[in-house]
Protein: Periplasmic chaperone PpiD
Organism: Marinifilum caeruleilacunae
Amino acid sequence: MATLQKIRNRGVFIGIIIGGALFAFIAGDALKSGGSLLTNSRNEMAEIAGESVNIRDFQNRFNHNIEVAKMMSGQSSIPSEQMDRLREQTWQQMVQEMVMNVEYEELGISVTSDELFDMVQGRNIDPTIRQMFQGPDGTFNKDQVVATLQQLINAPKGTPQKNYWLNIENAMTTQRTLTKYNSLIQKGLYMPDAMVKDLATKGSKKVDINYIVKNYNLIPDSTITVSDAEIKEYYNEHKDLFEQTESRRIDYVPFLVEPSTEDYKATEQWLAELKADFAAETNNVQFVELNADTDFNPFYFKKEDITNADLAEFAFSGNKGDVTDVYSEGDSYKLAKINEVKMLPDSVKARHILIRPVNGDYASAQAKADSLKALLDKGARFDDLAKANSDDQGSAVNGGDLGWFTQGKMVLPFSEAAFDSKRNEIKVVLTQFGAHVLQVTNKGKAVKKVQLAVVDRKVEASNKTIQAAYAKARTFAGNNLSKDAFLKAVSEQNLQRRTANLRRDTKNIPGLENSRELVRAAYQTDDMESVLMNNDQSAVFEFGDKFVVAVLSDIKEEGFALVNDVASTIRREIRKEKKAEQMIAEFNKNSQGAQSLLSVAQKENLEVKNATGVSFSSFQIPGAGIEPNVISTAALLEKGKISAPIEGNQGVYMVLVTNETTDEVTDATVEAFKARLEQGYQYRTNYQAFQALRDNANVVDKRYKFY
């Protein structure tokens, strides 16, 4: 399977595959055992299009995807963050599969074996296959595809390589099926020529306007009365505006675990006792790696580069091997030792020839670099060898020239070799990129620089301190198990109460490390009278450096918000409408017989403002903001005519068109406009068609019970 291994080593990323159908719970089991219905209910993690999804089926798919991810990356384990993303990908794939398969079956959409053959080794090669079997010159190698398939045919069933290939085929099949469906929907879109021409004509017209505006804040809110009946009527007439997703709100009190005075003293004392050993140590880098919280920093500092004034003075007045007394910086205590003192430039100019190792063979790469160095030592031209041999194509075209660079800009071995080299000296240096033939061609002025070995230790809470914080949280929870007692105690004890709005898929609560457990607890109960309990039936949750006690304070079901929950929003809208009515009446009164917009502005004590280049397709009016009603009125208004009052977002407007220009609308411009519109609608189709099907499938997500 060497070929597949080479493909994987190229880093080609194939998305996690939608493969294998989901199994609903088996009714026969329910008949055999009276307890299996209850078991299936407990194990149900979702319901999609009326079908139950069992957690075991999801976990099998998830485990399969983990193995695929490991095989693609060459890793033996998957980091936790990637696991979370992989779990979410698996869920989205299962939803898409179950929703779309119904549509595919009804419409008769599928991918035949002949189509798959055509995608893999026929005339219409899939981009995935083309990328995998692309030669160094960019051409597709069909012979390599055939050879790989022959290997797979002879491979035992269930081998990782065969499973890997089946995943690739499933991915291509899934994508091709979805493409067919999207094409079917897109071909059903129609843009009437008359409508396109009308929109193009309106968009071709641009106007310059003068306008006046009475902002709503000119009328105090206190002067506008809104009744409960008006709020209810508005709610009923605009109910669609108040659709809400499911959410829950919690109130919680964090008990912070902070290092005590004793913890600070203990950390300082630990470093003080380490000083003698540090001073006697000859391998300072190893000592730092073994004892410090922070890795050894190989950087060489000028005096002005060291922000700690006392440390800078010590570093440039002491001798190599000297060690400071214990000092504090931030939340850490430190010891610093002068490791090296050198005269070094701030920057160097260099060139290099990079030889990348083939299949990790660094010995061969170094051997080639050594041979190039030998040629240079005999008088060969560096730039000629760089152009012919360097794998760093960015610098090879310039004879390997890297220009000027400062300390730390290059990887450490390369940087150290460059700054320690004499001018025109040639060295071979190994880095993670390969073997470099390095030559420093120029150097800045050398100045005194110091390299420091620093042993630091962050002050952390001791077990005694942690236990004290936990005891405080446990005592608070034990004395205040009800919501009323919780809120009363928070107020009386002047504790910090925080609020968090949660969705089922909320991974972390801001400020609380790895707090998914609290989210799950909030969704596993409808009890709003008691404190929340964790998996161990304790009221104290632990998240990083905090212990937390929380209560469920609000539940919002998916659907429409209750009128009382949105009353304040409705009250603002009704108040704005009433202000607009008053302002429109005042405008109408003061604009009767007016010969100019200026005369209306003078009566209203308003400023006449102007904006240029306003068209039907404008997003906003310069100086006024997003005002679609004003834009559409201005775009269609006759030049020289004062508009009627216009109710806008920020206030009530009156507009006068002072100038207008219209671009010529030809058949070509209409067609181009139509093409842009159709393309925009087609882009939206892919997402919106699936979203409509998903909404219709009534997906009930119960993952919170398990993750």
Q: What stands out?
A: The first helix runs from residue 2 to 9.
